[in-house]
Specification:
Radius of gyration of chain A: 24 Å
CATH class of the domain at 12-66 in chain A: Alpha Beta
Oligomer: heterotrimer
Helix content of chain B: 55-70%
CATH class of chain B: Mainly Alpha
CATH superfamily of chain B: Ferritin, core subunit, four-helix bundle
Strand content of chain B: under 5%
Chains: A alpha+beta, B mainly alpha, C mainly alpha
Order of helices and strands of chain B: HHHHHHHHHHEEHHH
Structural class of chain A: alpha+beta
CATH topology of the domain at 12-66 in chain A: Ubiquitin-like (UB roll)
Order of helices and strands of chain A: EEHEH
Number of domains of chain B: 1
CATH architecture of chain B: Up-down Bundle
Number of strands of chain A: 3
Strand content of chain A: 15-25%
Strand order of the largest sheet of chain B: 1-2
Number of strands of chain B: 2
Number of helices of chain B: 13
Structural class of chain B: mainly alpha
Number of helices of chain A: 2
Radius of gyration of chain B: 20 Å
Largest sheet of chain A: 3 strands, antiparallel
Chain lengths: ~100, ~300, ~210
């Protein structure tokens, strides 16, 4: 996503990003965008595009200019403990199981 | 791990997409990639839009309420697809109004099949069943397009197209199990549409010579798509007692379909705006665009 | 046969047909899609009413399509060929106002099947009213729209029985005038019927499609 790209000359104020919820309880997911002169038309047209075949139970329409795009991260010191891939469970689990099997009962 | 950064170098970018890398609207991309994307995606949008005109009269003439509803919904999807597609082009930098202006001026291309007339209710069935099937094969391959915004809308498009094929098959089945005259409607329509269908996926240019494949905009070669179409649909056509109007059509022992060479000259001639119905359809859209220009002005005035 | 219901069904069938004429040529792609939804709803309503009228063993398609033009009970408003946007939106807006009034009355029908169907139709038409209102707001100061509303106003009054016209006038904010009554078909209906039924008439009665 992200704002400020070449929107083909379309004013950012008139692009509405559409988030749709497929079923109650599910997260709202980005589905695309509609260009409309105001929220009223945006709603009418988004209902058509993202709901005419009953594929959404709810929509959020957000003017593109309201979206604050965050897309860069610094990870200079490779702090692996903060991620799942920072733990090599498999090898240690294998060893622990072998030791447990070898323990006298 | 650090966020993936698109390399700002054409060769590195090429390697990136060829190893499955995905590109977003705000990423750096080589000029050639952007230009090819716009042209390809725009042609798709134009095709969805022009695909509406061959079918609109049959909505008005549909012989049952259910068929009227189903056909209206199918054609509606196509306009909806055009909307989604032009939105993607717009975010790449080309306004929808410009795409439409070029389309109506006759300087932009759209797929061959939408330049031909529809003559009977048989055409309605053949188009929904076979033309949409040919299109879906290409569209499923586009689910893997390196340009992510396009790949994402293809998901919705493919989902909606699956309804169209069901509808098409139902129309065809009703006709081939109806009166002899109704059966003939299908055969006659098939005879007319076979040529354009065989041309639809384009000339058999090897995948590795196709820039669209190299940039991973397309993920399959033209001939691959055509073979997939024949594999899937010739058996379905034959099992209904219909004939394919190509005496050379046969499946070899190695699984490859042989067929009469499609008329590539006709394809080239048609897609450059010389199809039997091209001028008339563009003129119809132009007429209404002009007549209702005031409406767009009224709406666009925020 | 319940003439009032047949009139409702025929109105919805014909106005749905007219709305479908914008397929592929609407001034905005978004409106092409919106009109298709509205047309589908209208055809859907027509179908539901035809089905109610013919009963569970009956053939709704036969009732919808196999009559001569004179046997249709559609109001002149829906038959008019109006392929310009100002008149089209004017008709949309006026038709929805009139339709809401008659559907509301039907919701009180003693027959539960009719009342229930009217309630369903009413809920679906909420979207049509939203759409018509959006456009009415946008175009209300546009001279060609105001002219179109004036031209179609007598036809709009003719959609409703006399006792409901006062309410329509109140909602539209217009003074009642001499209506173009239901009962005499417009010259346009014949051409519409011809195209609407041409495929169906090409096979013997009872053919499957």
């Amino acid at each position: 996503m992200g704002a400020g790209r070449g929107s083909g000359g379309v004013s950012e104020q008139r692009v509405f990003e559409v988030f749709r919820q497929e079923r109650r309880g599910q997260p709202f997911e980005h589905a695309g965008s509609v260009v409309a002169p105001d929220a009223g038309f945006a709603e009418a047209w988004a209902r058509e595009q993202y709901g005419r075949r009953g594929e959404s139970v709810a929509l959020w329409l957000v003017p593109r200019e309201a979206i604050h795009d965050v897309a860069d991260w610094a990870d200079e010191f490779d702090l692996k403990y903060r991620r799942v891939d920072g733990y090599s469970i498999k090898a240690r689990l294998k060893e622990a199981r072998e030791r447990a099997a070898a323990r006298p009962r | 791990m650090a966020a993936v950064e698109i390399p700002r170098d054409e060769q590195a970018f090429l390697e990136y997409v060829q190893s499955g890398g995905q590109v977003e609207a705000t990423d750096w991309m080589p000029d050639e990639y952007r230009a090819r994307l716009i042209k390809f995606i725009e042609m798709h949008g134009n095709s969805e839009l022009m695909g509406v005109l061959p079918e609109r009269e049959w909505i008005l003439r549909a012989p049952t309420l259910q068929r009227k509803l189903a056909l209206t919904a199918k054609v509606q999807d196509e306009v909806g697809h055009a909307q989604l597609i032009y939105r993607v082009v717009e975010d790449l930098g080309k306004p929808r109004e410009q795409c439409l202006a070029e389309l109506l001026a006759g300087t932009a291309k759209f797929h061959n099949v939408f330049h031909y007339p529809t003559r009977t209710w048989g055409d309605v069935g053949v188009i929904a069943w076979l033309v949409d099937a040919a299109a879906i094969i290409s569209q499923k391959a586009l689910l893997r397009c390196s340009y992510a915004p396009y790949a994402r809308i293809m998901k919705k498009i493919c989902w909606e197209e699956s309804f169209h094929i069901l509808h098409g098959r139902d129309v065809i089945l009703a006709l081939v199990t109806g009166t002899p005259a109704q059966f003939e409607l299908v055969q006659e329509a098939l005879n007319r549409w076979w040529g354009p269908l065989m041309q639809f996926h384009g000339t058999p240019i090897p995948r590795d010579e196709d820039p669209m494949y190299l940039w991973r905009i397309k993920s399959q070669g033209n001939e691959q798509a055509r073979q997939q179409f024949l594999d899937g649909y010739v058996p379905q056509i034959l099992e209904l007692g219909l004939e394919v109007p190509d005496p050379k059509l046969r499946k070899r022992d190695d699984g490859v379909w042989e067929y009469s060479e499609p008329d590539w000259e006709e394809l080239r001639y048609v897609v450059t705006g010389h199809g039997p119905k091209t001028a008339e359809r563009l003129a119809l859209r132009r007429r209404f665009l002009e007549q209702e220009r005031w409406v767009r002005d009224a709406v666009l005035a925020a | 046969m319940n003439e009032q219901l047949l009139a409702l069904a025929d109105d919805e069938l014909i106005v749905g047909w007219r709305d479908s004429e914008w397929t592929g040529i609407a001034p905005l792609l978004e409106e092409d899609v919106a009109f298709s939804s509205i047309a589908q709803n209208e055809i859907g309503h027509a179908r539901a009413v035809y089905e109610l009228l013919v009963g569970s063993d009956g053939d709704a398609d036969a009732l919808a399509f196999d009559r001569e033009p004179e046997a249709y009970r559609s109001a002149p408003l829906v038959e008019l060929h109006l392929l310009d946007w100002a008149h089209t939106i004017a008709r949309r807006w006026l038709y929805e106002l009139a339709d809401e009034i008659r559907i509301t009355a039907l919701k009180d029908d003693p027959e539960p099947g009719i009342a229930g169907l009217a309630a369903k139709i009413d809920r679906e038409e909420a979207y049509h009213r939203l759409h018509a209102e959006l456009w009415h707001e946008r175009l209300r100061d546009e001279p060609r729209f105001r002219r179109a509303v004036e031209e179609l106003w007598p036809y709009a009054l003719g959609v409703l029985p006399a006792e409901l016209r006062g309410e329509l006038a109140r909602r539209a904010g217009l003074a009642e005038v001499a209506p173009v009554e239901r009962g005499t078909h417009t010259a346009e209906l014949a051409a519409l019927w011809e195209e609407m039924t041409m495929v169906r008439r090409s096979a013997p009665a009872g053919a499957r499609w």
